[in-house]
Amino acid sequence: MFITPAYAQTAGAASGGSTAFLVQMAPLVLIFIIFWFLLIRPQQKRMKDHAAKVAAVQKNDQVVTSGGIIGKVTKVDNDIAEVEIATGVKVKVVKSTLSDVTPAGGSRPAND
């Protein structure tokens, strides 16, 4: 015999190349789908909720800036909010730098 059985088996498997490619790619696609539903999608939802909270900031809301300053909103413009951080001390902050917004008269919502 000139052809070994092992060589004969690999020669037959080479003819189904497209099927083998799909079988090799299936775990990668499955991992991406799981990654999407467990990490990317919830993060996008949190970002969307945060952007909605910041866009809806109103007078008398309590806010926390990304620098950790806590204050009460006294005036709101398009992109800027005026925050009172102490009696008579007001600072202007860019609304996109607000990290948390608590509505006036409301308690802090529980974290999910």
UniProtKB/TrEMBL annotation:
It is found in: Cell membrane. The chain crosses the membrane at residues 20-40. It is a single-pass membrane protein. The keyword Cell membrane applies. The keyword Transmembrane helix applies. Pfam families: YajC. One of its GO terms (biological process) is protein transport. Its main location: membrane. GO terms for cellular component: plasma membrane. Belongs to the YajC family. The SecYEG-SecDF-YajC-YidC holo-translocon (HTL) protein secretase/insertase is a supercomplex required for protein secretion, insertion of proteins into membranes, and assembly of membrane protein complexes. While the SecYEG complex is essential for assembly of a number of proteins and complexes, the SecDF-YajC-YidC subcomplex facilitates these functions. Part of the SecDF-YidC-YajC translocase complex. The SecDF-YidC-YajC translocase forms a supercomplex with SecYEG, called the holo-translocon (HTL). This is Sec translocon accessory complex subunit YajC. It comes from Sphingobium boeckii.
